[in-house]
Amino acid sequence: MPKAIIFDFDGVILQSVDIKTRAFEALFAFEGPEAVARIVDHHRANGGVSRYEKFRHAYREILRRPLSAEQEKTLGERFNILVEDAVSACPWVPGAREFLEARHKQFPLFIASGTPQEELSRIVERRGLNGFFRAVYGTPAQKDAILRKIAADLPCAPEDLLMVGDAGGDYEAAHAVGAAFVGVVAPGVPNPFLPGVAVLPDLTGLETFL
Q: From CA 138, how far away is CA 82, in angstroms rounded?
């Protein structure tokens, strides 16, 4: 029985992964289809990673030109315009709302997301989710550091935490601190996890891990 449950956000609580993918496509469309394809591939392969880290990778490894701090800020602002309203209105991952409503009084629940902190907080508030979560953490904090902070604040051992995520980075963060992990892999999406990692197609079966 975990002492707290930590959720990634996009693809775990809300069906918002494709919204972020389309935003990367739109943001870099003027760079041409080959560059866009590589940028989107990197984005998909690095779920849960800060969009700013992905911008830096795109410029350094794909576009091969410098990215100034002002350009990075502008990219972030444009990305936010493309995604915030859409994410605030998109559907739930099946089972997510039911699980939160049934279990938020029994377990301390948290969000640990690659979305920037201020944007994430606004979306959580707009969706009326604040009452479900003890705290909501976004970037620039790293997920392994977030898990350690949650364990220290409760207090409990990191091994008593359960992380629920849809990306390899979520699993790596849990593994780094010794937390339990359950992956969410939607139907038709390639499984990013190692053999033996427990996965669900959505949150309708999460109760079985409690």
A: 18
